Amino acid sequence: MATDNDRPFREVRKLFPHTKEVVYFNTASNGPFSTSLCQSIDGYLQSRLAIKDDTHGAFDTAAELRRHYAALTGANVREIGLGLNTSFGLNLAAFGLPLKKGDEILVSDIEFPAVAYTFRSAAETRGLKLKFVPSRNRCFDMESLADSITPRSRLLAISWVQFFNGYRNDLKALSELCRKHDMYFVVDGIQGMGAEPINLHRIGVDVFTSGCQKWMLSPQGCSFFYLSDRVRDQIKPTFMSWLGVDWQQQFTDLFRYDLPWFDSARRFEMGYYVVLNQIGMLESARLFRQLGIRNIRRHNYALVDHLARYIKRDPYYAITSSMESRHRSAIFTFTCTDYELLHRHLIKEKIILVQREGSIRVAIHLHNNRSDVDRLIGVLRRWSAKRS
User: Fold this and answer.
1) pTM for the model
2) Residues 270-316: pLDDT tens digits?
3) How far is CA 100 from the centre of its chain?
4) Do residues 8 and 295 lie in contact, with contact meaning Cβ atoms separated by under 8 Å?
5) N or C, which end of the chain is more exposed by having fewer CB within 10 Å?
6) DSSP labels, 273-300
């Protein structure tokens, strides 16, 4: 039964015209665009076609984005920078933090490749040791992490939410363990940002980085990163930009080479902004501030629960994601003996989702509603009935 709490999501759903034809459960790969996002980008394109003036608004847009992302993550604005993808922030940590030859970097043995390859490259380049922490039942394991730590362990890099089964790591517990052993704590946040509330100060994260093309429903090729006050000035990356200093938007005297670096994460932003992307980012960020991440999580979890109840009743299927309160997320996975055939059938039925590591992955977000889940359940029920 619909409630007043559903009303904002019913209104938001109208911004996503794909919902009239397609059930989209693949936000964990790419988020759908809203009409308001497309209109905002088109408005900018039309203004550049007309050239009535040469105002681009890039710096104002970037400043507003930093404010929004700071509010959404419990950070200070000075700790937020804008990048191109999740790997941008990972590289700042991997190549910029003061690690010494022989220091150990710890990552999970079921980590997303963006984390593993970035820190593998740093290990090969800087003479570090990349050490994989054994998982348990395809989930990150705190005991294995504790057993893996040595006096040379200096950094833990981990995904907030695992991409293939939605397992949400306990960032607070991980942060406390890192502090105990004087380790940097680096988080790939892309599979949680926009679907799970977070306060980076309370948790104690050193570096947090998230692309915005998935759950944040923004264009591809855009991200933000967080550098805590504790580590920002320790980072010495191998690349910098002329916009890492404060020109105060006065570009009439460019023969100045002694300006101080920004005393903020903005110091590490790379050159000029991808303005079209950031216009889209801004439109989406406003939507998330309007709805509230906690409300979005409540909405998403209610739909996941509805699907999970059916899967639990049908012996043909098995849940492969955690439903434990501290580890669940808006990613729900299940499997069956012929999941690959089933996946192809679901695509034909215009239910868009993916296979990941032996399961079918359902990523539920703010544009979905109960009718989407019921449509999926209907197909699953007919599929299992034919094979039972």
Assistant:
1) 0.95
2) 888 899 999 999 999 999 999 999 999 999 999 999 999 999 999 99
3) 29
4) yes
5) N
6) --HHHHHHHHHHHHHHHHH-HHHHHHHH
